[in-house]
Fold:
Amino acid sequence: MMKKKYTQLLFSALVGLCSTAVFSQSATDEIAKYREMIAEGNPAELYEMAGEELWAKPAGPNKVTLEKCDLGLGPGVVEGAAAQLPRYFKDTDRVQDLESRLMTCMQTLQGIAQTDIIQGAFGKGLRKDIEAIVAYVVTHSKDMKIHVPATHPKEQEMVALGKKMFFFQGGPMDFSCASCHSSSQQRIRLQDLPDLTTQAGAALGWGSWPAYRVSSGEFWTMQRRLNDCFRQQRLPFPIYGSDLTIALSIFMAKTGDGGTVQTPGLKR
Structure:
């Protein structure tokens, strides 16, 4: 109830600010003011707190916590981990993003089958748990530098695949990721679209997700953000945690390398 009421207040604030955009320099300025106004009260904090509890709570058939989960910087280390993902993991012999890595830890440590997560739905069940844990982890990289140089051969392969997918056109509208995100000063309605082919644009786009979405009243992970991009392209939804989604992620992260992490972000 509290979250719903808070979301309504935030959305009302956005509507009010956007209605005055006609008399202001631009709608973009108004949205920037709105985000600054409520930045201290980002509802993602509620997810972060839930994620912190889930990280330390015994779960699954094995009744074990995730406190020994290795996100790339050693067992249990969350400080700065999200800023260096996706990356190659020797134990799985694959490049993984935060969500697919959490699935690995939930399976190996807690005994939770990855198929139970993959076949689930966003905002429900085990996926909802992962979303909360993601909020907890990414908060510990806020204001740090994105550090995804992608030097391992398998990382380089995934960057190449991500770039290919970024420019791939398909679906009934013949859209690609590049249709919206390969030039500056483009927008959909009031939403500015970062140019993800540039370091500055990728740092802005990649560095502000995952984020709390005021319009849906939910915390969206990068996997969910990409899923919605496929929806808007009228393409089939990707498999949760698939190499395709991870490839797109590492392509963006590599392009934005050196930028600043601003997650959890706050979106309309």
